[in-house]
Amino acid sequence: MFLTIPTLLTCTRIVAIPLIVGVFYAPLDQTTRNLIATLMFIVFAATDWLDGYLARKLNQTSAFGAFLDPVADKFLVCASLLVLVHLQRADVFVALIIIGREIAISALREWMAHIGASKSVAVHMIGKLKTMAQMVAIPFLLYDKVLFGVIDTGVWGHWLIWVAAVLTVWSMIYYLQKALPEIRSRL
């Protein structure tokens, strides 16, 4: 069950990374680049929901899919953040917080799985809120224009990415607190 529809959708998020980055090197005007990158990010980010739904609906869940799904999400978010830092639309400090947390929590989850305690660091609502804030902030920052004549996506994206950074720290503290009893018992 390696090449299932859900797994292929997950792989599209990884394939999307050089495409989204490449848009900013294309011989297009900045407004067109912003629009294409934003639409691409939204479409590829939506595959995160779709692949999970299809995996459950088609009974095509797999250990490989469970591994690859969060990796693809992290690659897409981290690459987009680096593009935004390069474009000076996101603060490097925000990117360091978000990317650093992703590395730390991924390592924690791997270690907790190794010791048979992965349930203590299972995805929590704080992590889901963090992801939601990121998934709204990033396309807003990629677009970086006024939407519908009312929403300044640059301003909203700026505030939402900082909300995501705060939720990132909060969720990391939460997961570390949940893991602490297991860590102490292994010392």
Explain this structure.
The structure is a single chain. This protein has 187 residues and is mainly α. The chain contains 6 helices and 2 strands; from the N terminus they run αααααββα. It has a two-stranded antiparallel sheet with strand order 1-2. Helix 1 runs parallel beside helix 3. The longest helix is centred in the C-terminal third of the chain and has 34 residues. The radius of gyration is 18 Å and the shape is globular. It starts with a helix and ends with a helix. The mean pLDDT is 90. This is CDP-diacylglycerol--glycerol-3-phosphate 3-phosphatidyltransferase. It is a multi-pass membrane protein.
Helix content: over 70%
**In whole angstroms, how far apart are the ends?**
39 Å
The biggest sheet amounts to: 2 strands, antiparallel
Query: What's the total number of strands?
Result: 2
What's a concise summary of this model?
It is found in: Membrane. With 187 residues, the chain is mainly α.
